[in-house]
Amino acid sequence: xxxxxxxxxxxxxxxxxxxxxxxxxxxxxxxxxxxxxxxxxxxxxxxxxxxxxxxxxxxxxxxxxxxxxxxxxxxxxxxxxxxxxxxxxxxxxxxxxxxxxxxxxxxxxxxxxxxxxxxxxxxxxxxxxxxxxxxxxxxxxxxxxxxxxxxxxxxxxxxxxxxxxxxxxxxxxxxxxxxxxxxxxxxxxxxxxxxxxxxxxxxxxxxxxxxxxxxxxxxxxxxxxxxxxxxxxxxxxxxxxxxxxxxxxxxxxxxxxxxx
Length: 260
Known about the structure:
- The chain is of the alpha+beta class and 260 residues long.
- Helix content is 21%, strand content 29%.
- Belongs to the TfdA dioxygenase family.
């Protein structure tokens, strides 16, 4: 068993483990921790982009979001950076690339440059979001689907731009149910609901999911590698009050284990 400290209300902190040394059993344990806790924080890592890519490939096929900026020399990874920007980046709670039929199960960030202040990443517990809904609302939502659409990216004409997913998803590893939604602009329609009903329901579920008592704020340290399971968390970057450069390299992967 991988020793960890539980982070409330979502996440697990793992120390004294080198990501590049994880064998098949270690990757399986990381999958289990991510399925149970949503987010796995590995502290004190020294891996480079090549080894970071190998780490991601251990989980399944790598997914790259069309329209993002790739890391030079590592086209499977993309850069998230505030360097050289004249306006503050914006981020709302969301699930990565949910507008495709097979969204990435896992997203991971490697800290390249950590600002001296600010720049946290905030995660919501979508298991708890589902569990704490009123029973009558859960009964109403359990069999519905949600159409996710792309926003903010310039895609090719033949690229996927919308997909239908269960609004209430059962995790293939943990067996637990969670609310699977994204930022409201990407939530186009809920099955069996009018546009007004969809907008009202999505806003309620989004606010409920991202309430302060249902989120964990991760403060980045040099050497951090953080992996999360998109099937049971939403996330956003908090760009308010950032002092200094904030540079992250991001990779995403399917769940090859669940697929097999």
